[in-house]
Amino acid sequence: MKEHRQKHPLVFGTLILTGAGLFTRAAGFFYRIFLSHKITTAALGLYQMVYPLYSICFSLCCGAIQTSLSRFVAAEYRKRGGGESRRFLAAGLALSLSFSLLAALALFSGAPLLAARLLAEPRAAALIRVMALSVPVSAVHCCICGYYYGQGRAELPASAQLMEQAARIFSVVFAVRMAEASGRSATALYAAGGHLAGELGALFLSLSVFACESLKGIKKTRRTSSARKSCGFLMSSILSMALPLAANRLVISLLQSAEAVLIPGSLRAFGLSGEEALSLYGILTGMALPFIFFPTALTGSLSVMLLPHIAAAQSEASYESISRSSRLSIRFSLYVGVLAAGLFLRFGASIGPAVFHNETAGELLTVLAWLCPFLYVSGTLGSIINGLGYVKVTFLHNVLSLGIRLAFVTLMIPRIGMRGYLYGLLASELFVTSCHYAFLRRKTALALSPVYELLRPLLAAFAGTGFSFLASAMKGLPGLMVSGALYVAGYLWVLYFTRR
What we know:
The chain is an all-alpha fold. The protein is built from 19 helices and no strands. The protein has one domain.
């Protein structure tokens, strides 16, 4: 197994992360179903309004440094055998912890003002304070995971995902049961507390594994005094990539936060009451979108492992490896995207009532289905561009894409309701995917076959649809699951027998 990982770190790491991602997302669906039955959709929408504030802090203090760290550790291992990789980790931790403590303090102390003025929901202040405590915790385990990603070792990050989800679910279920036993009702605060518990679980596991490996001397590295670089140089190297990435993610998070605030207001302008608008937003973000993002357990794992792989290949000037990995990764993302789009088009209207007992969730899923191919492919394309070091390009494309979404929120939702936002999502993802692909074609001579990469999965989707009708006599959730399994089987069968 170790030899296979060393020969094919991209494939092996992707498989490990995919397995963990699928399991955690499947568990997350049952968790969301549980939440939807225990707290109101309005409370779920309140939690979703607060979450972008945490995302902003995470983007600034954790995510960008983790990505930068994985890229430099990957290049370090290829060039010098990893002699400076632990010092890169120490520099990244120092930066991330410093930023995250400041952000948590600002978020915690300013919670009442943010809730009242920014979100226009004073009830959100307690949630903001709980989420603020998660930021420094996220900073530590994200840096450790970035260190392992750079080495092509996905086992610890995958285990941290599992621990995070397990801690979140068990803590919330336990708290809800205790509340019910004492006659109290569950609120959105339980979801925020579960998020903090999940982050603490991931931190405990990450620190424990890293400390054990350090004490046992498993990860020894070659060090020579002449090759050692100053701590300031390591920090500046990390920041050289992290700052543009952080700016990218900050602007995106700010725009997403603006979007989260504007959508309920636009829905009220459409004619819904304040409670109805918050409820519909909760259905979209707490029920429909998690289904749409479920397959990113596959494509997201690939993107995470792809960035350090591309960076390492670039450090060796192995452009053939970059081109080959890029083509295979895009093809895989496209196949998953078409598969998911077909599934949601075929079964979206049935999933909402069967899983959430909510017809509106099913209607939203059917419209969002068209988003899948562009959503999954754009993530992979963006990871390739970042791996090549063109962080400013993804920043520009993403900002313009989110600008399109905001335009639809402010102009179309007051006229046609939530469908205006769904159309905006589709237009923005189509735009960013086209821009990413056009840039890579210029820089890497990337070319895809319209027949092999596009026509095959479309034919496979039609075949899967035909297979799914074999179980049309079965009703309810069991029938839905059997029909879905037949659809996937037919889809994969056509892809397999039409391969080159």
